[in-house]
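Quarterly update from the structural biology core.
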Amino acid sequence: MTPSLLYLLDTSLRTRMPLLSLKRLLLCCCLCMINLPGMAAEMPGPDEVLIASSLIASTEAPSSGSTTTLAIYMEPQGEWHGYWKQPGDVGLPAKFTWHLPDGITVGEPAYPLPQTLLIEGLMNHVYEHPYALLVDLTLDDNLPDGTPLPIRVDMQYLACRYDACVPERASLDTTLHVGDGHQLPDVAARFASWRQALPRPLAAPTSFDVEGNLLRLRVPLPASVSIQNPHLFSATKGAIDNAAPQRVERRGDELIIETSVGDQVPDAFQATLKLSDSLGLDIDAKRVGPASALDSTSDNSLSIILLALAGAIVGGLLLNLMPCVFPILSLKAMSLARSGISPAIARRDALAYTSGVVLVCVLLGAVLLVLRAAGTQVGWAFQLQNAAVILTLMLLTTAIAFNLAGLFELAALDAGTKLTNQSGAGGAFWTGALAAFIATPCSGPFMAAALGAALVLPTAAAMLVFAGLGLGIALPFLMLGLIPALQRRLPKPGPWMGTLRRLLAVPMFLTALALLWVLSHQVPVNALVASLGCAMLLSLGLWLTGLRQQRQRRNAWLPAALALILALGLGWSQVPGQTAPTLDVQRRAFDEQQLAQLRADKVPVFLYFTADWCITCKVNEQLAINREATAQAFAAAGVEMMRGDWTNGDPAITSFLERHGRSGVPLYLWYGAGEAEPRLLPQILGPGSLLELVQQ
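Predicted structure, tokenized:
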């Protein structure tokens, strides 16, 4: 057995490595012994350095009372690698012994985002490329300028490759002198790149629960944050099985990670979550009971599902009063008012209409859940964020409005001329599907809470809520079709039906106008004019079709079909999926020199720091910062807004946060005109929090 393996085995026994890890280590020993001749031929010499190391200071002249940074720069040679602070199944973390002068304290080293290395079923957390460990060095106040600060660190670390491990030692030293804190530009750039590689602390609470051998971690993360090959590195040894598969799922603004528990199930553990090769988050996870999970089968979860279902049904029922649905419902009710319709046909068409409505709602809900699982931040009526969909809906409602006005005839929406035929069920189905699709621009009471709950419920429960919405929309016509007593209460057919039909064109025209208004906020003026031209072109085609229908011409629908194809082709080419812009208050990018100048000029400043992966930041921006009322109030009071983006790290922002006692975002500061010190605002902002600042 090689000396390195004896070192590992001895260290494992002295540190009381868990039995499972010890078995794995013995397995490695056996494998290495089988390959011992080849290993002996390729082992490094006694004087060969496998991981070169050096000690670099961010400044050679740190100022008294300040905190400066040291970098322990490690350079693995060839196929050798170093280890993260929690090395995984095999390996040892580095040990540091500091020798410091009086008046100097040193913090724990900060590790960059590690890599995974799986060998023979053993998961290692390693660095195969050069990396830097950053250490904060704090100087006491009142140290005289020019005071020498000799610093030395003795290190013990392990250098490994796929077939061998070698313990190494190094003693690194440097001498600093108390000064003005000046940094050389090239050194500052190196430290900036090293800080960029560090994980960001996640301030939002993270929880996990354990069911049997399964650990389920919930990380609050905005759905807009993209992830690539995520992986959870546990900094607490034994919390998870490092080599076990990790299943990652997006659920709206939450990331769910499922993996196997380790040798010990803690009440809390620390970890680093890799979101991509360049972005990681440091998290503190606390254990909660499985009953708190939304996807559990507890009574609490069942009540949430039933409440969401009831809200969806009531919300869908109230949608029938909206101008986009009421005309279609009225037409279907008029069809039942005709004489000669048997109860069997009424039931058939009521069920067909309901099927069409429910199917469209379920399909839209399924697409919504798939998009959110893929990381897209969307909600109900997500398709309305696409300008091409808005244009299509505007053309569709325009066509329905002209049909109701009598410009042309459309059997599926007519007052029931073919209801008694065998094709009547098909017409009822497609009318229901159309009603559901047209209903998506509308929103009614109870819908927001119900559909919001659906987005965090398990998939089956969420689909049940979407089906409940469809049932609510279809419920009035379903009851008319199934209950003959209600049919008998309908007014008798007569000339009034034609008059009512013409009147119902008015809300449909208003719906088309509302969609045009929405489109005006999504596309430039030339695209808006082109959209109006598309509506006029379609109207011309429908008018020609109506004339041909009156003369009973063959292929009467040919002009309308050609006009529709041309209108959609022209419209989609002008508005290719442009999305609606969100309100963005005018602001400056964070710059300390600009901030100092604004303060010197006695200009009030609201400064905030955010990150795309910070869900608290995004909620505050929606509720308090990105509001028209905030923009108007700040403009009237002459307030400058400054924004610091810490999504990918920024050494200037990191330093600023630390000076204000923060290690992460959000941070909100208010600099009143002429005030010497900023006012620290709460991390949770309300809709009126910023308005109160300018009113004081």
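Residues 320 and 326 are 5 Å apart (CA to CA).
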